[in-house]
Design goal:
Largest sheet: none
Number of helices: 3
Distance between the termini: 41 Å
Structural class: mainly alpha
Length: 93
């Protein structure tokens, strides 16, 4: 069940990150989901390191760290995707 939640959270974080980043992102949905999962893991690690991973009520700070990490990762991976696979796909068309 933990993996299912990781995929769902990664999917949602990835989509939110894509919506926040200005311009068009060309990475596929599966790659965006993986980036969102990585953002959630990185955000949890940052929150734990700062001592705000578990608070009473909703963990807004942990969620903020997850979203910021997802935005950075989605942005970086999309640039890398376009620098490698994206150019090959554009030339093939």
């Amino acid at each position: 069940m933990g993996w299912l939640w990781a995929i769902i959270v990664g999917f949602v974080l990835g989509l939110i990150a894509k919506a926040i980043i200005p311009g068009k992102q060309h990475s596929p949905l599966w790659l965006t989901t993986i980036c969102g999962i990585l953002g959630a893991v990185a955000g949890n690690a940052i929150a734990a390191a700062l001592g705000v991973a578990q608070t009473r009520g909703i963990d807004w700070s942990r969620h903020a760290f997850q979203l910021i990490a997802a935005i950075i990762i989605v942005f970086a991976v999309d640039r890398l995707y376009m620098a490698t696979l994206g150019k090959k796909k554009q030339q093939a068309v």
